[in-house]
Write a structure and sequence with these properties.
The complex is a heterotrimer of chains A (about 270), B (about 200) and C (about 625).
Chain A: H1 18-34, H2 39-56, H3 60-82, E1 95-99, E2 102-105, H4 106-132, H5 135-144, H6 150-160, H7 162-180, H8 188-218, H9 238-261
Antiparallel strand pairs in A: 1-2
Chain B: E1 2-4, H1 13-52, H2 59-67, H3 72-87, H4 91-111, H5 119-136, H6 138-141, H7 149-178, H8 188-196
Chain C: E1 5-14, E2 22-29, E3 34-38, H1 44-53, H2 55-58, E4 62-70, E5 73-74, H3 80-86, E6 87-90, H4 103-114, H5 121-132, H6 147-160, E7 165-169, H7 177-193, E8 197-201, E9 214-218, E10 224-228, H8 230-236, H9 238-244, H10 250-260, E11 263-265, H11 272-278, E12 303-305, E13 334-342, E14 348-357, E15 362-366, H12 373-380, E16 391-393, E17 396-397, H13 403-409, E18 410-413, H14 426-436, H15 441-454, H16 470-482, E19 488-492, H17 500-515, E20 519-523, H18 527-533, E21 536-541, E22 544-549, H19 551-556, H20 558-563, H21 570-580, H22 598-609
Parallel strand pairs in C: 3-8, 3-9, 6-7, 7-8, 15-20, 15-21, 18-19, 19-20
Antiparallel strand pairs in C: 1-2, 1-4, 4-5, 9-10, 11-12, 13-14, 13-16, 16-17, 21-22
Helix pairs in contact in C: 4-5, 4-6, 5-6, 6-7, 10-22, 11-21, 14-15, 14-16
The chains are: A mainly alpha (about 270), B mainly alpha (about 200), C alpha/beta (about 625).
Chain lengths: ~270, ~200, ~625
C-alpha cells in the first residue's frame, strides 16, 4: 500500500505546474482569511471538490477518504471557535446554547461555521494539490522555475525514497520492541521512553542509509560542475494561464453574486435574524 | 601526502541527504500519532490542536541541533514539510506553514550565532517558532482574533509551550539519545560533545 | 599500453580512526581484466573502491598517500566528476543507491550530472537498460522492482555514464539467491562483451569464479596479501583465508580438505564443473571470456595421491547429526492449524498453512521472497494476531498467552538486530528482560556475565549496542533472546551478509542450543545452512507449504527446487553429479543420508580414492 497520496494521471490538473497549484492554495488562504461570512467559503468548497474530481479525473473515493478524519476534527474546530466568539457582543446576539460560563450565541455559531467552512475550503484546495502533484515534479519545478539550488532539491528528492522505507522499518522496530516486552502500557512517562526507544534505531539506521545514498549520488558525479541538464523539464504552460484566470474569475463571480444577494461580509445571512 | 577535508561552512551532499532523512523520520513517527490526533481533535478542537502543534515543528529543531549550520533550521523544517506534504492531505498548507515555522526557529539560532544548544535555548527556539507561526497564521486564518481575549491567550500559551516542549526539548532528547550510538560522529553535534568532554 | 588501473603505495586512513584502512597497496590492472578482491569484513575493500573512483580524496575525509592512476591519469589531479565518469561503482544495498522514484529518472540522474543534452537521454537510458538486462518499462516505480532488478538498475545507472572501469562492491550481499543469480548473469553478459575492466568485491563466490581473471587478497590490516591467478592464489592461501574468516568457493574448501586427507588434485578446482573434471569424471569445459585468460591449463588431468603429504592419524569419522527428538505436541513444539492471512484487503500471504514443528527440531523455512516466511513466523510471537485455534505453542493457543508468557516461551531474533535494541549499554540490553521480570540484581549480574563470556562480548559490556560490529550486534541480539531461556528460538535470516567467521560462530551456538533440547526455527535463503544444519526443511511458495521433510528429499527434487527458486549448494550438487556419473561408492556413503558438508564429502571421497588413509 502506498503512503503517498499522489494519484497518478494525466488530467488537466495533473499537467499544471506544481507551483501554480501551490500559489493557488496560498492565495486562496489569504483571500478567504479576509472574508467573514460563512456562505462564501462554503460555496468555494462546494465548487472545489467536484471540480477537482472532474478536472483531475479522480474517483470520489479518493477525495472522500481524507475528508472523513477532517469532518471529525471539524466538529472540534466549530465548537472551540464558536463558543468563545467575543466580538460584536454589543449587538446582544441571541443565545443558543450554554456550557458553564461560555455561551454559544447566534453570531458565535455563524462565526464557528464560517471558520470551519473556511478551513474546509482550504483543505479542499490543498487536496487538489496533493492528489495531482507528483513529489518529484514539485521539486523539479522549485529547482527549474524558482532557482532553488539543485543540490538541495535533489537531496530532498532522495529523501522521498525514505518514506516507505522508514515506515516499514518503524513497523519492524515496534514489533521487535513488543517482543522484548517493552509493552504498550499507558502513562506519559512510559510513552515518552517508548517514543525515544523507537526513534533511536529508526534515526540511527536512517542516518546511515542517508549517508550511503549521498555516497551513491556523489559517485555519479553529483557535486560536479554547474553545467547541469534536466531530463524532466518543468515549465509554465497555457494550462497554468487558463487555471489561474479561471479560478480568479470564478472567485470574483462568487463574490459579486454574494454581494448582489446582500450576503457578503455579513456574518449572518439576511434571511436569519 | 595529501590531507583532504570537507569545508564546514557549506553543505556537502551528505549533510543535505542526512538532514532530509532526519526530517523524514521525524515526520514518519508522527503518522503513527496522526490518527490519534484527529480523533482527539474532534473532541478538544483548538485546545488539542494547539497543544499538540509542537510536533510539526520538530524538523526545525532536531536538525539544527545535530547539524549546527546556519540555515539548517529553515532547511530542516522545510524538508519535513515538503516530504510530509506527499502523504498528508494538508500538503500544500504544510509547506507554507513549514516555511513560517522554519523562519521562526532559524531566527533564534541565528541570533545566538548557532553556538548555544542547551535546553533553555532549544525550548526557547521551539517557543519562538510556535509563537511566530501563531501570530502569522492561525490567529487570522483560524479566526482566533475575534475570540475572547482569555481564550486567545490560552491558545497562544498552549501552542508556545507545545513548541518549547514537543519540538525543542523533545528534539534535544532525541538528538542526545542518538549521540552515543555513534551515527552522528560526522556532524557538528558530536564534535561539540567531544569538546565538552 | 596504459593499464586501466595503476595503484602504487596506496595508504589511506579515515579521519578520526587510529589505523589506516589500506596499507601500501600496489597493483596494476590491464584493460579488460576482471579482478576479484577478497578480504575480511571491515571496510578496506569498500575504501579501495572509493579510491578508484575519486571519492577518495575528493569527497571523503582522511589522509591519503600513494597514487591511483586511472588510464594514466592521477585521481588527485582531476576533479571528482571526471574520474567518477570513468569509474562506475555498484554498491551493496539495493535500497540506498537511488535518489529518485522512477527507473528512467534514476538513470537520467547520472546523465544530468554529466550535462548530457536532453535530446540524447532517452536513447542512452534505453541502451543502459538493455546492457544491464533490465527488462521493465522505463517509467516503472523503483519500489516495484525486486532486489535483483534494483541492482541491475544500479548497474544501468552506472553504464549509462559510459565508464571504462566498473567496480562492484558486494553487489549480491543483500539479495536472495534468485537476485544473486540475476546479478551474476548481468556480470557474465558484460564479461562476454569485453568492453569493461571490472573489479568485483564479493563474498558469494560459488557461481562467480568462471568470470574471474585474477584475485587480489587484502589482509585485515589493509595490506596486500596476495595477487595473481585465481587458482594459484586460492590454493596457496586456503589456510590463511579460512583463518581470516573469508569465504571461498565450496569446491576450494573441498580441495583443501582433500589435501589434508592426503589427496592432492592436480588442478585446483574453482567450480563444480572443474571439480568433476579433477575427480576424473567429465571432460574439461572451454574457458570463458578471452581465450587463455583462465590460467591456461587445458587437458584431462586427474587427482594425485601423495604418500608424502602429512595425514592425520585418525581423520575424524563422519558424525551423523543428532536426530530430532521427535516429540510431537510437547513443550517447545509449534503447530499451525489451517492458518491463512492477508494484510488488510491485500492478496492472501498465507493460504491454509498446516504445519507442525516438533519440539527440539532444527527446522529451516525457505522459499522465494514474498512467500510468507516472515509472516508465518511473526504469528508465533503474536505480532500478527492469528484467529483462535490456529497457532499453538506446545499445547497452548498463542492467543491465550500474555505478552510476558509469550516472551518467555519464544525468542525471536529479527533480521535487523538494531531494531531490537532497547538499552544504552550491552549489559543493560541483556539485563532488560530479567529486570522486567523483577529478578534480583545479583542474579542478573551472574547470568549476564555468563552470557557475555559465552558470546564473546565480555569486553563490550559497557559499549552502546549501536557501536558494535555487524557480527557482534547479531550475537548480542541472539543473546538477549536466550537470557530468558525460552524453549523456542526463531531466527530471521541470521547469516545474511555475514562473513564466514561470524556465520559459523552463530551456527555453532545454534547447534549447541539444539543439542540442549531447544527448538530452532530459521528463516533463511542460505542453502548451505540448510544442507549442513537443518534436520527439517519447510518450503513455502506463494503462502502454501509445498514440502516438509528432510533436506535430502528437497534437494533431490529438481522440479520443486526450481519452483521455489532455490539452488542446491555446491556440495550437494557435486554429490548428485558424482552419483549420476556412477562414482564408485563402495560403502554407500555418498548416496546415504548424511548431510553434505565439506568435511563429510571430503572424507567420503578420500575413502574411495585412498581408502587406506581414511578411517570411516
Amino acid at each position: 500500500m502506498s503512503l503517498f497520496l499522489y494519484h497518478e494521471g494525466s488530467s488537466f490538473l495533473h499537467r499544471l505546474n506544481p507551483l501554480t497549484k501551490l500559489l493557488f492554495v496560498g492565495l486562496l488562504m489569504v483571500v478567504l482569511t479576509l472574508i467573514l461570512d460563512p456562505i462564501t467559503p462554503l460555496v468555494v468548497a462546494l465548487l472545489l471538490l467536484p471540480s477537482t474530481m472532474v478536472l483531475g479525473r479522480l474517483s470520489p473515493g479518493l477525495l472522500l477518504r481524507p475528508l472523513r478524519p477532517f469532518v471529525l476534527a471539524a466538529f472540534g474546530l466549530f465548537w472551540t471557535t464558536g463558543l468563545f466568539y467575543a466580538a460584536d457582543s454589543a449587538l446582544h446576539p441571541r443565545a443558543l446554547f450554554q456550557v458553564g460560563p461560555a455561551v454559544l450565541t447566534e453570531l458565535g455559531a455563524a462565526y464557528g461555521a464560517s471558520i470551519t467552512f473556511r478551513i474546509l475550503a482550504i483543505f479542499a484546495a490543498s487536496l487538489l494539490f496533493t492528489l495531482t502533484t507528483e513529489p518529484s515534479a514539485l521539486l523539479q519545478a522549485l529547482i527549474q522555475q524558482w532557482r532553488v539550488s539543485y543540490r538541495f532539491g535533489y537531496g530532498v528528492m532522495a529523501a522521498y525514497r525514505f518514506v516507505p522505507l522508514f515506515d516499514s522499518q518503524l513497523a519492524s522496530i515496534r514489533a521487535a520492541h513488543r517482543v522484548r516486552g517493552a509493552g504498550s502500557s499507558g502513562g506519559p512517562v512510559a510513552r515518552y521512553h517508548r517514543f525515544i526507544g523507537y526513534m533511536v534505531p529508526l534515526l540511527a539506521g536512517g542516518v546511515r542509509q542517508a549517508e550511503r545514498v549521498a555516497l551513491a549520488m556523489d559517485a555519479r558525479g553529483f557535486s560536479g560542475g554547474s553545467s547541469r541538464t534536466y531530463y524532466r523539464e518543468s515549465a509554465f504552460g497555457w494550462r497554468d494561464l487558463v487555471f489561474s484566470a479561471g479560478t480568479g474569475a470564478v472567485l470574483v463571480a462568487v463574490l459579486l453574486e454574494l454581494h448582489a444577494l446582500g450576503w457578503l461580509g455579513r456574518l449572518l445571512p439576511p434571511f436569519v435574524s | 601526502m595529501q590531507v583532504s577535508s570537507t569545508p564546514t561552512r557549506s553543505w556537502s551532499t551528505r549533510d543535505i541527504v542526512v538532514t532530509a532523512a532526519l526530517a523524514v523520520a521525524s515526520g514518519i513517527a508522527f503518522i503513527v500519532f496522526d490518527w490519534f490526533y484527529s480523533v482527539v481533535q474532534g473532541v478538544g478542537g483548538n485546545f488539542v490542536g494547539n497543544a499538540l502543534a509542537g510536533f510539526w515543528l520538530i524538523g526545525g529543531l532536531l536538525v539544527p541541533y545535530i547539524v549546527r549550520k546556519p540555515g539548517s533550521a529553515l532547511f530542516g523544517e522545510l524538508v519535513a514539510a515538503l516530504v510530509e506534504s506527499s502523504f498528508n492531505p494538508w500538503g500544500a498548507i504544510v509547506i507554507l506553514s513549514g516555511l513560517l515555522e522554519g523562519l521562526g526557529s532559524e531566527a533564534v539560532f541565528l541570533a545566538t550565532g548557532y553556538r548555544r544548544f542547551d535546553a533553555k535555548l532549544m525550548a526557547g527556539a521551539g517557543a519562538v517558532a510556535a509563537a511566530f507561526f501563531f501570530v502569522t497564521q492561525p490567529l487570522w486564518t483560524q479566526g482566533y482574533y475575534k475570540l475572547s481575549l482569555p481564550i486567545i491567550l490560552a491558545y497562544f500559551v498552549l501552542r508556545t509551550l507545545s513548541g518549547a516542549v514537543l519540538a525543542g526539548l523533545l528534539g534535544k532528547a532525541v538528538g542526545d539519545a542518538l549521540v552515543p550510538t555513534g551515527v552522528l560522529d560526522g556532524f557538528a553535534i558530536a564534535r561539540g560533545r567531544q569538546q565538552e568532554i | 599500453m596504459t593499464p586501466a588501473i595503476a595503484v602504487d603505495g596506496l595508504t589511506f586512513r579515515y579521519r578520526g580512526r587510529k589505523e589506516p584502512c589500506l596499507r601500501d597497496l600496489s597493483f596494476v590492472v590491464p584493460a579488460g581484466e576482471t579482478v576479484l578482491v577478497l578480504g575480511p569484513s571491515g571496510g578496506g575493500k569498500s575504501t579501495l573502491a572509493f579510491c578508484l573512483n575519486g571519492m577518495i580524496p575528493h569527497g571523503i575525509d582522511g589522509e591519503l598517500s600513494g597514487t591511483v592512476h586511472i588510464h594514466g591519469r592521477d585521481t588527485r589531479a582531476r576533479p571528482l566528476a571526471a574520474t567518477a565518469r570513468e569509474v562506475g561503482i555498484v554498491f551493496q544495498d539495493p535500497e540506498t543507491q537511488f535518489c529518485t522514484l522512477r527507473v528512467d529518472d534514476e538513470i537520467a540522474f547520472g546523465l544530468e550530472n554529466l550535462g548530457v543534452p536532453r535530446a540524447q537521454m532517452p536513447e542512452r537510458i534505453a541502451a543502459a537498460m538493455e546492457a544491464a538486462g533490465l527488462g521493465c518499462k522505463p517509467d516503472t516505480r523503483i519500489d516495484h522492482l525486486s532486489g535483483g532488478n534494483k541492482q541491475r538498475l544500479a548497474l544501468a545507472c552506472v553504464l549509462a555514464m559510459q565508464p571504462s572501469v566498473l567496480v562492484f562492491d558486494e553487489p549480491t550481499s543483500n539479495l536472495d539467491p534468485a537476485g544473486a543469480v540475476e546479478v551474476f548473469a548481468a556480470l557474465r553478459r558484460l564479461k562476454i562483451r569485453g568492453e569493461h575492466t571490472m573489479i568485483v568485491v564479493e563474498h558469494r563466490l560459488d557461481g562467480l569464479m568462471d568470470l574471474i581473471d585474477r584475485v587480489i587478497v587484502l589482509g585485515p590490516d589493509g595490506s596486500l596479501i596476495d595477487d595473481g591467478a585465481p587458482r594459484r592464489v586460492l590454493s596457496d592461501q586456503a589456510v590463511r583465508l579460512e583463518r581470516e574468516g573469508i569465504w571461498i568457493p565450496q569446491v576450494c574448501e573441498l580441495a583443501a580438505q582433500l589435501k589434508v586427507r592426503g589427496i592432492e588434485l592436480a588442478r585446483y578446482p574453482l567450480t563444480v564443473d572443474e571439480a568433476m573434471v579433477e575427480l576424473g569424471t567429465s571432460p574439461p569445459a572451454p574457458p570463458l571470456g578471452r581465450a587463455g585468460r583462465l590460467s591456461g591449463e587445458v587437458g584431462r588431468v586427474s587427482w594425485q595421491h601423495h604418500p608424502g603429504l602429512p595425514s592425520r592419524a585418525a581423520i575424524a569419522p563422519i558424525e551423523p547429526p543428532l536426530p530430532s527428538q521427535g516429540r510431537g505436541g510437547g513443550r517447545g513444539s509449534l503447530t499451525f492449524n489451517h492458518l491463512s492471512y492477508r494484510y488488510g484487503k491485500g492478496p492472501w500471504v498465507l493460504r491454509d498453512v498446516s504445519l507442525t514443528v516438533q519440539a527440539g527440531d532444527f527446522c529451516a523455512i525457505v522459499g522465494p521472497n514474498g512467500a510468507g516466511k516472515s509472516t508465518l513466523a511473526q504469528h508465533l510471537i503474536a505480532t500478527l494476531r492469528p484467529p483462535r485455534g490456529t497457532v499453538f505453542l506446545g499445547d497452548r493457543d498463542v492467543r491465550d498467552l500474555s505478552a510476558t508468557e509469550l516472551a518467555s516461551t519464544v525468542g525471536y531474533v529479527f533480521q535487523n538486530p538494531e531494531h531490537q535494541f532497547v538499552a544504552r549499554t550491552v549489559f543493560d540490553e541483556l539485563a532488560f528482560g530479567l529486570r522486567l521480570r523483577r529478578v534480583p540484581e545479583p542474579d542478573i549480574r551472574a547470568k549476564v556475565e555468563a552470557l557475555l563470556a559465552e558470546f564473546g562480548l565480555a569486553r563490550l559490556a559497557l559499549a552502546n549496542p549501536f557501536q558494535l560490529s555487524h557480527g557482534e550486534k547479531r550475537r548480542l541480539s541472539v543473546a538477549t533472546m536466550l537470557i530468558l531461556e525460552q524453549h523456542v528460538l526463531v531466527l530471521d535470516e541470521p547469516t545474511f551478509g555475514q562473513d564466514r567467521r561470524n556465520a559459523e560462530m552463530l551456527l555453532s551456538i545454534c547447534e549447541q542450543l539444539h543439542r540442549n533440547g531447544r527448538t530452532i526455527l530459521m528463516i533463511t535463503h542460505d542453502m548451505r545452512l540448510v544442507a549442513e544444519h537443518a534436520r527439517t526443511v519447510v518450503v513455502l511458495v506463494d503462502g502454501k507449504v509445498v514440502y516438509r521433510g528432510e533436506p535430502q528429499g528437497l534437494f533431490a527434487d529438481a522440479a520443486l527446487m526450481r519452483r521455489a527458486q532455490l539452488a542446491p549448494p555446491p556440495m550437494v550438487e557435486l554429490r548428485r553429479r558424482l552419483l549420476d556419473n556412477k562414482w564408485m561408492d563402495a560403502d554407500g556413503l555418498l548416496s546415504g543420508a548424511l548431510p553434505a558438508t565439506v568435511e563429510s564429502l571430503a572424507t567420503m571421497l578420500a575413502g574411495t580414492l585412498a581408502p587406506e588413509r581414511v578411517a570411516v
